[in-house]
């Protein structure tokens, strides 16, 4: 990492980062989920801690070691993630939604394991919308509090990202293009950091730590003092 990691330029800042992917239960043993590994969120937690921040990581279904010096809170579903983030938001200077949140959940969760029956077709799974946690955190943020989102787009990356930033009402949005060689679970990422003031910072393909450090730089540019 660069010289920035040696300076405690995030000292005194309380940052809360969500990581991983939510699981929406169908029955006691099954869920709807996604392939998010949580690696980018954990890289954000490690780098912020190294730069002196007080870090809370809200981890949704990750299988990664707890970063040293970071408080880790585990959640499962989008609703649990939402409750944890809203609770943590009260004392936070920076909120980062790096988790992949399910847009939909099953309309009904049953208490017993779903059984198959010979000659009977399965019921379709009805879905309902989950709350948009990033938009909610942005709408409810205190003066001086920064809210950061992530977005993976397969086309029109910059225009789509700009529209998404406006829709969510957040301060910064990290947009990366997916669908090519880059996939979930890798150790590298390439992205553009969009600032609500119109700024645009491209980050070349590199370790997720490097992207994380560039994001903390962008946070400090937008909020130089606390
Ligand atoms: N997000 C969230 N709550 C949701 C869905 C998404 O907080 N219910 C957050 C993600 O954590 C991410 C950002 O919103 O930081 C963008 O997620 P993305 O899936 O790209 O955006 P959506 O608004 O869900 O749009 P799309 O229809 O393209 O999936
Ligand atoms: Ca989505």
Automatic annotation (TrEMBL):
Keywords: Decarboxylase, Flavoprotein, FMN, Ligase, Lyase, Magnesium, Metal-binding, Multifunctional enzyme. Binds 1 FMN per subunit. Residues 10-220 form the DNA/pantothenate metabolism flavoprotein C-terminal domain. Its cofactor is Mg(2+); FMN. It catalyses: N-[(R)-4-phosphopantothenoyl]-L-cysteine + H(+) = (R)-4'-phosphopantetheine + CO2; (R)-4'-phosphopantothenate + L-cysteine + CTP = N-[(R)-4-phosphopantothenoyl]-L-cysteine + CMP + diphosphate + H(+). Its EC number is 4.1.1.36, 6.3.2.5. GO terms for molecular function: FMN binding; metal ion binding; phosphopantothenate--cysteine ligase activity; phosphopantothenoylcysteine decarboxylase activity. One of its GO terms (biological process) is coenzyme A biosynthetic process. GO terms for cellular component: phosphopantothenoylcysteine decarboxylase complex. CTP binds at residues 103, 113, 150, 164, 168. Residues 15-226 are annotated as: Phosphopantothenate--cysteine ligase. Pathway: Cofactor biosynthesis; coenzyme A biosynthesis; CoA from (R)-pantothenate: step 3/5; Cofactor biosynthesis; coenzyme A biosynthesis; CoA from (R)-pantothenate: step 2/5. The keyword Magnesium applies. It comes from the Bacteria. The keyword Lyase applies. In the N-terminal section; belongs to the HFCD (homo-oligomeric flavin containing Cys decarboxylase) superfamily. Catalyzes two sequential steps in the biosynthesis of coenzyme A. In the first step cysteine is conjugated to 4'-phosphopantothenate to form 4-phosphopantothenoylcysteine. In the second step the latter compound is decarboxylated to form 4'-phosphopantotheine. Catalyzes two steps in the biosynthesis of coenzyme A. In the first step cysteine is conjugated to 4'-phosphopantothenate to form 4-phosphopantothenoylcysteine, in the latter compound is decarboxylated to form 4'-phosphopantotheine. This is Coenzyme A biosynthesis bifunctional protein CoaBC. The chain holds residues 178 to 403 of 403 of the full protein.
């Amino acid at each position: 990492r660069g010289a920035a990691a040696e300076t405690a330029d995030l000292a005194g800042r309380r940052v809360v980062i969500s990581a991983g992917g939510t699981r929406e239960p169908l029955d006691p043993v099954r869920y709807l989920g996604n392939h998010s590994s949580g690696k980018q969120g954990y890289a954000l937690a490690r780098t912020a801690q190294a730069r002196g921040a007080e870090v809370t990581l809200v981890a949704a279904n990750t299988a990664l070691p707890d970063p040293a010096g970071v408080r880790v809170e585990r959640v499962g579903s989008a609703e649990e993630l939402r409750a944890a983030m809203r609770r943590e938001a009260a004392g936070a200077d920076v909120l980062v939604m790096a988790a992949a949140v399910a847009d939909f959940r099953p309309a009904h969760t049953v208490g017993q394991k779903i059984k198959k029956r010979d000659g009977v077709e399965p019921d379709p799974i009805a879905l309902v919308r989950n709350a948009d946690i990033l938009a909610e955190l942005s709408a409810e943020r205190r003066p001086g509090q920064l809210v950061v989102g992530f977005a993976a787009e397969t086309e029109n990356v910059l225009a789509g990202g700009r529209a998404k930033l406006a829709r969510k009402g957040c301060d910064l949005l990290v947009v990366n293009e997916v669908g090519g060689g880059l996939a979930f679970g890798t150790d590298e990422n390439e992205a553009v950091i969009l600032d609500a003031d119109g700024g645009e910072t491209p980050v070349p393909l590199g370790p997720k730590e490097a992207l994380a450090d560039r994001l903390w730089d962008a946070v400090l540019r937008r909020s130089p003092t606390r």
